Amino acid sequence: MRFGVNYTPTQGWFHHWLDFDLDSVRADLDSLAVLGLDHIRVFPLWPLFQPNRSLIRPRAVEQLVQLVDAAGERGLDVNVDGLQGHLSSFDFLPAWTRTWHRRNLFTDPEVLSGQEEYLRTLAAALADRPHFLGMTLGNEINQFSDRPHPDPDRITDEQAGAWLARMLAACERGAPGRMHLHAAYDAAWYQDGHPFTPAHAARLGAVTAVHSWVFNGTAQRHGPTGTATEQHAAYLLELSKAWATDPHRPVWLQEVGAPDPHIPAAGAARFTGATVTAALDCPDVWGVTWWCSHDVPRSLADFPELEYGLGLLGSDRTLKPAGRALAALIAEQRGRTHRPPVRSTALTVDAGGAEAAPHRSVCAPGGPVFEAWAELTAQGARPALVLSELAADTAHLTSRGITEVCTPEDVGGPRRRSSPAAPHRRSTS
Hints:
single chain; alpha/beta; TIM Barrel; 4-stranded mixed beta sheet; 13 strands; GH; Glycosyl hydrolase
């Protein structure tokens, strides 16, 4: 079981690439290593690294390598996000994709060739570093493809899938055999018609990444200590497995945080402990990576208020209650094998078809699948989730250890049906 953090530099936030200070980075990493973490996720800013389609700045790539080496010296493995993309409400896109050079990020042939070469270059620069985990294509880059983005680059789900496959292949060419993946915000799971689909998330790349943020209506509906709120990350981990063709595909809780005021600062430690504990009760979890390492300095302007206080540590590197809670959980888990019991009861998900999932909003907060799962969990059950078209597939159910299936309509009533699967248990490590 891996525990890590999304690295937000104390000096200048992600603008630190403009005035890269390796000593400051090392001090940041020192403050993280003592928490017992074993990896970080880092974010080059795409416009600074590739300001022109044919220019990938060697000095910027060298600084990224220096950061990865510094992390490795402290026992921290590193995942690198490539196409930044979007971070904490700000978009960072190179000028050769916007305004006078406006071209679709996902379909324009010249943009695609530039993206490919950029991702390949970063991966190749790190391919021989033992502490390099692999590439994530970009941070929630799916938000550029659909509403509510104010200027989306519209594409179909087929085009989204083709883009993902092409960019993942570029990463593989640069660093063969590493853990290359993509990451989407929860529109992929919850928003009808969104071109990035649950099938893309759960089937493309080395692992499935989920990003859990309870300001999406969960905390507003269920409160900061509600079961659905404290179990939201676990729900997404289980939801991803409904779409996975490999029944034991690894899932990475790549982002999760305690956003104030949805999670009041006084309750951040409780939420951290409850969220991570719930995630640990899910099978096939690769790791948990908290958002984020350090608070955004108040000297920086125009962030949404909740973005300033998400760190495990303050911008002065002092440890906060959420950081203490996570460090305590890591210490408890050290040396243990991740082996949660099988989730033998499954709730069906009818999203209108596995590929496009045109009715996936049934899985969103307030939707029948989400609310039924939360209700079962509050009753003490540990439900898995299974696509309705697989609910009678004996081989699929058996491979996941599912022995009982119910529908959202069944929850709270006497009617349930047993599946044809035989009892089956599998441990993970």
